[in-house]
Amino acid sequence: MTGIEDYSGFEVIRAAMEVEKNGHRFYAAMVEKAKSPLAKEIFTWLAQDEVQHLKTLERLVPKYEEGAFWANEEEFLPYLRRFSDREIFPSPERLIQVLQSENSDLQALDLAIEAEERFAEYFHAAARNARTEEGKEAFTWLAGEEDRHAAALKDRKAKILAG
Q1: How big is the chain by its Cα radius of gyration, in Å?
Q2: Residue 109 sits in a domain of what CATH number?
């Protein structure tokens, strides 16, 4: 976890805002690259949901601002950069390969499920290791949101497979 367990709730929320921005960029790019209407619909929903998450996080900032400590931005920025598109999201090459495949809808769904599960796993681990109650609370909320995304995508995939 390399120190993230020490971050205040404010810092967790601030980092999560960067995560949601990265997620929005990723899903918006997938909308542009997707060929099928179904894939475009799914990725449009995900991109819009990331915007809603960002708005929710912005509303949470006042709750966590008291006692916020972001004294050393240089120390915190590597944590934010950890959520680069390549770490959580598939590489552009893998994305293009999937979107050009015969089963592009299902494979694109699998990529999105994988990304959401990685975020959820990371946030669950961060919540378990958080040393502050507000950090634990913020990480737990974030993990739940990512779990919800993954579950919705799995449900959509099951409906597609059922025909």
Answers
A1: 16
A2: 1.20.1260.10
